[in-house]
């Protein structure tokens, strides 16, 4: 069990079942609320060999030495002007690569081909694909389809008509990470699927609009909880937003559900917001690869993510492509 999984497991323990046990899939409790024309992901496919990163690319510390996922507890860093310049360029690059990946995500393309494309595009900007070897992750982006909530590993499965796919791109450039994701529609997606994706996009947008100096972090989670209630969706609580900088994951923790976290946003903080909303239940389990997080009730979920900066007057989205 890698530390990243441990991080997830801790959250599962704390926030979902409280029993100290990993959740196990129960194939007899299939979700009845998300019936439609789409393909259930039951197992991981074939994962290709690790891609090469040339000598001249600056690599994060975990490339050479296996490390646990970053610790997200503690005091959030306040970044200076120079750090923020690097955060801006990493964020912009991540957003540009994500857009390119979205454009190539079409019926018949495999997620491994998306990974290959993202990998080489990131390298061409003298940047490193942050997921690669992070807590042992084997690929350069995460691709999560239909009932996969997040951390899907790119493999040989071809995209099919009706899929929804989240592509999560994080790049490491000049010593700083930028992290963003979007859920894309493949071909003809049914009405519930489109509703889910549109709602989740809107949810993140509204979360960001709430942010600014002096705002409690828990305002985000409180909003998401209300939004989900109104839209008859459920938030996947096991996965949190996170501080980001020279580290992939650091303080603060951003909970995507109602909570009473005492912290407040301050100018100079950079963190992600990345809600995962589900058409069914919010419980997840992991496939045998230890990464792929699937819904326990086979319902679909969608996710959107931005890296943001709290400014003196409000908020700036760092992962905008232009
Ligand atoms: N990009 C993901 C996030 O939003 C983290 C992926 S970790 C990996 O936090 F190891 F799976 F890449
Ligand atoms: Co993130
Ligand atoms: Co991400």
Put the structure in a nutshell.
Helix content is 27%, strand content 20%. The chain has helices at 3-17, 81-104, 111-124, 191-210, 218-231, and strands at 128-129, 142-145, 148-150, 164-173, 176-185, 234-235, 241-243, 250-254, 270-273, 276-278, 284-286, 293-295, 301-303, 306-310, 315-317. Strands 1, 2, 4 and 5 form a four-stranded antiparallel β-sheet that branches.
Give an overview in words:
By secondary structure, the protein is α+β, with helices and mostly antiparallel strands. It has one domain (69-317): Alpha-Beta Complex (Creatine Amidinohydrolase), CATH 3.90.230. The protein contains 5 helices and 15 strands. The longest helix is centred in the first third of the chain and has 24 residues, at 81-104. The model is unreliable at 1-30 (pLDDT under 50). Bound molecules: 2-amino-4-trifluoromethylsulfanyl-butyric acid and cobalt (II) ion (2 copies). The site of one cobalt (II) ion has 5 residues, from loops.
Approximate shape: globular
Q: For this structure, what is the CATH class?
A: Alpha Beta
Number of strands: 15
Q: How many helix segments?
A: 5
Secondary-structure element order, N to C = HHHEEEEEHHEEEEEEEEEE
């Amino acid at each position: 069990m890698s530390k990243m999984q441990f991080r997830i497991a801790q959250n599962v323990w704390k926030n979902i079942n409280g029993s100290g046990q990993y959740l196990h899939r129960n194939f007899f409790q299939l979700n009845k609320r998300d019936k439609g024309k789409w393909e259930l992901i039951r197992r991981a496919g074939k994962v290709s060999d690790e891609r090469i990163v040339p000598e001249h690319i600056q690599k994060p510390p975990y490339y050479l030495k296996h490390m646990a996922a970053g610790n997200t507890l503690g005091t959030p860093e306040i970044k200076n002007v120079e750090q923020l310049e690097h955060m801006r360029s990493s964020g912009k690059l991540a957003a540009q690569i994500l857009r390119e990946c979205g454009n190539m995500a079409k019926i018949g393309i495999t997620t491994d081909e998306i990974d290959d494309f993202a990998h080489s595009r990131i390298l061409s900007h003298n940047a490193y694909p942050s997921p690669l070897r992070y807590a042992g992750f084997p690929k350069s982006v995460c691709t999560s389809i239909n009932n996969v909530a997040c951390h899907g590993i790119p493999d040989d499965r071809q995209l099919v008509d009706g899929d929804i796919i989240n592509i999560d791109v994080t790049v490491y450039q000049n010593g700083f990470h930028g992290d963003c994701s979007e859920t894309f529609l493949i071909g003809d997606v049914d009405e519930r699927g489109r509703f889910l994706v549109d709602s989740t996009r809107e949810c993140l947008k509204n979360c960001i609009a709430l942010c600014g100096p002096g705002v409690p972090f828990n305002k985000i989670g409180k909003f998401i909880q209300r939004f989900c209630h109104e839209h008859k969706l459920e938030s996947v609580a096991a996965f949190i937003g996170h501080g980001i900088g020279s580290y992939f994951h650091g303080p603060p923790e951003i909970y995507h559900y109602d909570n009473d976290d005492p912290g407040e946003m301050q100018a100079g903080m950079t963190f992600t917001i990345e809600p995962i909303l589900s058409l069914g239940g919010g419980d997840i389990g992991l496939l045998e690869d230890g990464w792929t997080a699937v819904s326990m009730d086979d319902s679909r979920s969608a996710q959107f993510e931005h890296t943001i900066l709290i400014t003196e007057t409000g908020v700036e989205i760092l992962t905008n492509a232009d």
